[in-house]
């Protein structure tokens, strides 16, 4: 072992005094061996420098999974470096580092594995499925606040990154809240992570988690779909019943115990629950629910008979009744039949009929309802572009915005 030390040279003091004085100090390198300590010689220095020069720091090996096919000879944006880039096909495990070549970051996702043995196993395997419809790997990116990305930390991520904790599971559906996530596996298991306030994760506490946690459900419940609200969560079971957890303000989760045709008393009001519990507000607790969505303070549910129920706050008419009724009981929206899907914005509601027709109601500010008039307490149709007839295939609302996925309505009157 090589270390440094300082040797002090002491000379006697000036004439006529007995006290020694420090005149100079000499800094030396010493070598420490099991059986001796000695001053380093010039030969020792030369030998140590040669050893140091031979210890080249090797770059860290990183593993990536390819998301898209890539042929650098034809696709590289930098032809002068194309020879150093690696070609790949979707799902291929790619080794980057040292002399292994380079990969474009927007075409791959890093596999967050530090263990060298596991790295070797993945390289031998050669491929990982990247199509969610195939094996259901989940990737997250964006803000890592409250641990909502599920990577075991609170860091932001700018590229899609595999959630390593769920690599052994096949994910079939996920939902994001404001700062938490729920996911369902092909075995009907539910995992939750992120912010835990109000019990929105359904784990029995209000603790936050930066890594996926399996949710404990009643034995008879098998999850089919999950839905995250701002501060709450819902599950539709395979039996088409609803379970919910988190904030039940205004009874937006239907957790108040309400009999048909009755209003709830203060003693039966539930403000929040920390574990998933069955909906108890009639008639939701007796209907077969095929789809739900949660807004800021209200929710909507669609039954297997095409009925549309709303429940929660009606401050802006988002419940869909003709008056600004204030009730915690679910409301069957009249005038709508054959509803296939519905969605909630911050204070408005949207529903799509079996023929692709779109209805909106509630807060109308800033074009929320897709038409010029302001708030509407009853559903009204939205006029889609007449020159290009469409049928709506999917819908999503977030705060004050709506996104419709459409396809051309192919019939004899439409030019192909």
The share of residues in extended strands comes to 35-45%
Measure the end-to-end span. 82 Å
User: Measured on Cα atoms, how large is the radius of gyration?
Assistant: 32 Å
Q: What is the spatial order of strands in the main beta sheet?
A: 9-10-11-12
H/E element order? EEEHEHEEHEEEEEEEEEEEEEEEEEEEE
Largest sheet: 4 strands, antiparallel
Helix content: under 10%
Q: What's the rounded overall pLDDT mean?
A: 81
Structural class: mainly beta
Tally of helical runs: 3
Oligomerization state of this entry? single chain
Number of beta-strand segments:
26
State the shape: elongated
Instruction: Catalogue the unreliable spans.
Output: 1-17, 19-26, 412-416
Walkthrough of the structure:
The chain is mainly beta. Among the domains are: 1-12 and 27-56, no CATH class; 62-125, SH3 Domains (SH3 type barrels), CATH 2.30.30; 287-416, no CATH class. It is built from 3 helices and 26 strands. The protein has a 4-stranded antiparallel beta sheet with strand order 9-10-11-12, with no helix packed on it. A 4-stranded antiparallel beta sheet has the order 13-14-15-16, with no helix packed on it. The protein starts with a strand and ends in an 8-residue tail after the last strand.
